[in-house]
Amino acid sequence: MPYSTHQPPIKLIFLSSGNPVTLNPNSLKVKKGFESADFVIMIDHFLNDTSDVAHLFLPGTTYLEEEDLMGSYGHNWVSPVNQVVPPQGEAKSEFEIFQLLAERLDFKEEMSGDPKMWLEKMAKPILKQGITFEELQKAPQRMVNPNDIPFSTGKFQTLSGKFEFIHVFEPGNNSVQGYPLRLLSTMPDDFVGSVPPGIPLLELRKSRFIPIF
């Protein structure tokens, strides 16, 4: 029997920082799936197409309002995220929301502790490399691991086994008959994720702070 969300049915969706109704393929089908749930809760910074199908929208803090550590894509640096301003309005961090939820669900002790304690706990693999947590909070730190250096053996997947510059680029013909055009989905510079510009964050929070449908 093929997998089905009806076996068992999905009754609750708890979503944090995402916009799957817009970003996933077949948006109408994704939206219909969200609408089939009994209750949808969403934590985010902005209202979007997914929040439109949520029953409860909880405003989360931005990176300017919380403490965190940020990994990276494509290199081995870890950077601190230090709080600049206190949470605005009634916004709460995801960490605080989950702590409050844990308290209601009777496993408060398992989620107890402040953000710094949990960050230090999660940073243990990094601290084993001789970096202190205080250093992590002050400036970006490079993780020293020679195994992570690309092509450290000096061998490349080319005919010669060496690095080769491309002299002539000949793209393959991947077009489908009857569909000669290609759609390139690019991110405008003034977008925040999938949210278009034009509405300040504080105005969003003031106008539709916690809509309940």
From TrEMBL:
GO terms for molecular function: iron-sulfur cluster binding; trimethylamine-N-oxide reductase (cytochrome c) activity. Transmembrane segments: none annotated. Residues 9-104 form the Molybdopterin oxidoreductase domain. Coiled coil: none annotated. The keyword Iron applies. Its EC number is 1.7.2.3. It is an enzyme of class 1 (oxidoreductase). InterPro entries: Mopterin_OxRdtase (IPR006656), Prok_Mopterin_Oxidored (IPR050612). Gene3D superfamilies: 3.40.50.740, Dimethylsulfoxide Reductase, domain 2, Formate dehydrogenase/DMSO reductase. Pfam families: Molybdopterin. Keywords: Iron, Iron-sulfur, Metal-binding, Oxidoreductase. It comes from the Archaea. This is Trimethylamine-N-oxide reductase (Cytochrome c). It comes from Methanobacterium formicicum.
